Amino acid sequence: MKCFVTGASGFIGSNLVHELVARGHGVKALLRPGADERGLAGIKYERVTGDILDRKLLERELAGCDWCFHVAASYQLWMRDYAPMYQSNVAGTRTVLEAAGRAGCRRIVYTSTVGCIGLPQNEDGKFMPTDETALVSEGQMSNHYKRSKWQAEQVARELAQKGLPIVIVNPSAPVGPGDVKPTPTGQVIVDFLNRKLPAYLETGLNWVHVRDVAIGHIAAAEKGASGQRYILGNADGNWTMQETLATLQELTGIPAPKMKVPHWVALAAAHVDEKVSAFTGKPPKAPLAGVRMAKYKMWFNPQKAIRELALPQTPPKQAFADAITWFRANGYVKNETGEGQSPVSCCNRISRL
Questions:
Q1: Torsion 224-93-113-322 (CA) sign
Q2: Which of 72, 180, 192, 266 has its CA 20 to 30 A from that of 37?
Q3: How far is CA 27 from CA 19, 32, 119, in A?
Q4: Contact indicator for 240, 202 with CB cutoff of 8 Å
Q5: Whole-number CA gyration radius for the chain
Q6: Contact in structure between 316 and 209 (CB atoms under 8 Å)
């Protein structure tokens, strides 16, 4: 197939391009001027320079493409002005999906997030992972990123109802090789390896190998039902942060932090941080939106994708091992002295997940 990929330089996007090329598909990668293309090194693809809001460019470059993967998104938990985020995530999604429809793409895969799926509720101290049928509560829409992605997903649903061949995928927390920037999830591993994680903020995440997420996108194009959404996660990946750090200790031999920061302490620090940022314009070390979300168990059930898309289920421990190997091989581990950061500043990485 001839494939068009937005967000191709990102963690998921670059892994998707690698998988597509490895399977013999041709790829047009939409990249902004000056985009970091390290994640795309060593593979053959056609570079398209432009923006997801450029309708004429999209219609021209999408002509003749069989599949379109819209992976690009604006992801910040704090901005002085959130209008550009909504413009990118909502208006940009409509522009890309409509252009793909007009170009005659046989399948359009939109990358949403599990943030658009309802969270597990605490029932007698137990949390049951939720699936695609769980509705999002107003409390879960407490930050602009999740709200903008939810609005974008509604655009995808609307266009699918009008007949566009759109499949929605909702990745959980990807981990693995090729996390160039790195993402907030990858930064947890980097900080751990550099012994800069003296404490942690408890939360719950569903970890999934980024390669499985990439393969899930391709499977959605091959087998997904139009208008449906699929959680791209791991059935065995619902871990607490304490369990995650214990796995990192087992894999690396580096002692996991034992100090757990109370949520109210992190929340108070985030309030102060954001007040300072309002004056300085610099992003807070611990965004309030992230700290608020960290109190929830973000656990999900990917059985629908396993059943209908044959979504691979690489053990999460292997995903972490692959990520560790990649970070070590690519120069991300620099601090072998054991010097740490303050417990409050280290909460930044955890709270953004």
A1: positive
A2: 192
A3: 10, 16, 35
A4: yes
A5: 20
A6: yes
Q: What is the pLDDT of residues 152-163, one digit of tens each?
A: 999 999 999 999
Cα–Cα distance for residue pair 272/266, rounded to 1 Å:
10
Q: Which amino acid is residue 351, in one-letter code?
A: S
- How wide is the angle at C-alpha 14 spanned by C-alphas 11 and 17, nearest 5°? 150
Question: What are the C-alpha distances in Å from 110 to residues 12, 89, 119, 236, 299?
Answer: 12, 11, 21, 25, 21
Tens-digit pLDDT profile for residues 127-149: 899 999 998 876 677 777 888 99
* 241: nearest Cα among 222, 218, 258: 258
State the burial class of residue 203 (Cβ atoms within 10 Å of its Cβ: 0-12, 13-18, 19+): buried
By CB atoms closer than 10 A (0-12, 13-18, 19+), residue 264 is exposed
Q: Which two tokens stand for residue 288?
A: 């309030």
Cα separation, 252 vs 192, whole angstroms: 9
Q: What is the pLDDT of residues 25-50, one digit of tens each?
A: 999 999 999 899 999 999 999 999 99
Alpha carbon distances (Å) from 213 to 54, 234, 260, 309, 310: 27, 10, 30, 11, 12
Following CA atoms 92, 285, 295, 178 in sequence, which dihedral angle do they give, to the nearest 10 degrees?
Answer: 60
- The Cα–Cα gap between 91 and 98 comes to 11
